[in-house]
Amino acid sequence: MELEAVYICDSCGEEIVVPVDPTAGTRQQYVEDCPVCCNPNELVVEIENDRVQLDSRSEQDPSGS
Question: Which of 12, 25, 55, 57 is deepest in the core (most CB within 10 A)?
Answer without folding.
Answer: 57
